[in-house]
Amino acid sequence: MKKVKGGITAVTGFFASGLHCGIKLKKQPDLALIYSDVPSTAAGVFTANQFQSAPLKVTQRHLSKKHQLQAVVINSGNANAFTGTKGLRDANAMAAETARSLHLKNDRVGVSSTGVISAPLPLEKILLNISDAVRHLSPKGSRAAAQAIMTTDTQIKETAYQTKINNKVITVGGIAKGSGMIHPNMATMLCFLSTDIRIPYNILQKALHQAVETSFNSISVDGCMSPNDMVLCMANGKKSVGPLQGSGPLFRKFSALLQKVCTDLAQKIVRDGEGATKFVELRVQGAPSSQWAKKVGTAVALSPLVKTAFFGEDANWGRILSAVGNCGLKISEKQVDISFGGMPLVKNGTTNPRISEKKINQYLKGKNIVITLDLHTGKGKWVIWTCDFSYDYVRINASYRT
């Protein structure tokens, strides 16, 4: 695989734009548009939160008709969530105005919103600027769109990779946003992906589901899930690599490319976690199954005590062991080993006298931390990415609306 520039518009035939429509103060970009010059096969994965926002409902309805999209319109600064029938009307109006401006059918447009929950959407500001977003569409517009979907993000999140499949260069690109309310089964995050491969909907959906499970569903910032989260992938079909089945070498190669892009974007979200100072990779191995390994890793990643210890650069491994003991797995603490950066501080559930805790604390002063938990109960393994809890996390969320 080769990393390339261009984000979501690295794929030929995709265009994007981002501009200020007036939802945010200080002229910050808050309206993004993604467009394919041909109808694209589209697949999506959506939040597990049962209270889904109006844009998600509209987008899922449009996808269910022919599994095709040609454009996605996104606003930031306002989530259009818990806004009742008005919210649904507003989401439909965003799709309709985008469709009119691009000469498309309404159901070829996906809609997404992110920002403050429960506030009425300033619809007129959006509708007045959609035509400008169309005029600004560019084959180099990925960065502008990625900036326009940010909320508490401090970093633009875009990436693209290429690989050869049956002698055809296939590209997958994407943009994402997310910083807080991040937890497996989707979080306050949006991700939009593009690819040029020709692929049936059911195969694309399978590949996307697999990629999301080991990327966006394997990250946690604060254990909260939003009503707005979605991952959409559009495939314009400009490159045919031959019949694609739901298994076999062609599928595996494309799935690996898609997973690489999703993992890159997921890690960018964790690194930009609200107030985060540490990027933590939790490797769980020796579990009874991969499902148990993920459950154990998630329990550790969710623990406020563990996360604050990371911020304090304290090798307080007892908190990690306590989190493992609380996740429901029948296991003895004597079966658990814990390593920090490859240094086995805990053996059989107790401190390893051969390893200096002072040396571990020095390791924890770095920005990138790797923790390995070996449960010695099977062959299951999983990787979870998380971050620490700092003072800034409380400050950002305490004053989010004010």
Describe the structure.
There is one protein chain. The protein has 402 residues and is α+β, with helices and mostly antiparallel strands. It has 2 domains: 270 residues, 4-Layer Sandwich (L-amino peptidase D-ALA esterase/amidase), CATH 3.60.70; 120 residues, Ubiquitin-like (UB roll), CATH 3.10.20. It is 33% helix and 30% strand. The chain has 11 helices and 16 strands. Strands 1, 2, 3, 4, 5, 6, 7, 8 and 10 form a 9-stranded mixed sheet that branches. Strands 9-16-11-15-12-13-14 form a 7-stranded mixed sheet. α2 packs parallel to α3, α5 crosses α6 and α7 crosses α9. The termini are far apart. The mean pLDDT is 92.
CATH class of the largest domain: Alpha Beta
Low-confidence stretches: none
Number of strands: 16
- Sheet of most strands: 9 strands, mixed
* CATH superfamily placement of the largest domain: L-amino peptidase D-ALA esterase/amidase
Q: How many helical elements?
A: 11
Helix content: 25-40%
Name the structural class: alpha+beta
CATH topology of the largest domain: L-amino peptidase D-ALA esterase/amidase
Overall pLDDT, averaged? 92
Large-scale geometry: globular
CATH architectural designation of the largest domain: 4-Layer Sandwich
Approximately what portion of the residues adopt beta-strand conformation?
25-35%
Separation, N- and C-terminal Cα atoms:
44 Å
Count of all domains: 2
What would you report as the Rg, rounded to the nearest angstrom? 22 Å
Strand and helix order:
EEEHEHEHHEEEHEEHEHHHEEEHEEH
